[in-house]
Here is the input.
Amino acid sequence: MGKQANALFWLKRICMLICMQVETFPIGMLSTNCYVASSPETKEAIVIDPGLDFSSEAKPIFDYIDTGKLTVKFIVNTHGHDDHIKGDALFREKYDVPICIHPLDAHYIAGIENPKFPANVLLEDGGALKFGIETLKVLHTPGHSRGSICLVGEKIVFTGDTLFAGGIGRTDFEGGSMTDMRASLKKLMGLPLNLLVYPGHGESSIIVEEKRSNPFLSSRNDSMLF
Ligand SMILES: [Zn+2]
Ligand SMILES: [Zn+2]
Here is the structure.
């Protein structure tokens, strides 16, 4: 490991130690990252993007929540694509808590075959999600979909399919826009350099590392992932 990579590794480790508890569950055919973020002090938690393909995939997540004696407060979707929302109903049935999404992507939840539960809380830009002593601010980042959001904490940002480690989300789906994506990435690059990045797919990263090495942040390359 080179000196710079080593320094980034340790910066990432330190950030992980001092921020809210985050557990990652890659689920479904597209390996969507479902996150359980919790406040160690109060054990209150949120579930982000439970995009299950099969209900059996929920078991390790339920077990993690049970074992940690966590109280789930919200189900949150970074955007409305199937691979992020398909397990919403299952989690809603189990925990009876609101499903939260940006208003411009709420129709995806209503559009699921036989929707049992519509979105309950609409997350507008500048809004906040509070659980325990933790707060995540809502940053509207359209481009991958009209209602894509990132959730920004003191030491952490959940970026959904807007920003990945070394990549960005596709903009060629319905509601996608490369112009919007560029503006959204600019917003993300204005965040503190030491924020941990938890994307909708793939490995975690850190803002400074993406600024340094993500080819999509320095060029106008339009080939994308996911
Ligand atoms: Zn997506
Ligand atoms: Zn996705």
In short: The chain has a mean pLDDT of 90. Helices lie at 3-18, 59-67, 82-85, 88-95, 106-111, 178-189, 207-213. Residues 59 and 65 are 10 Å apart (CA to CA). The pocket of zinc ion (ligand 1) is lined by residues 79, 81, 144, 161, 169 (CB under 6 Å).
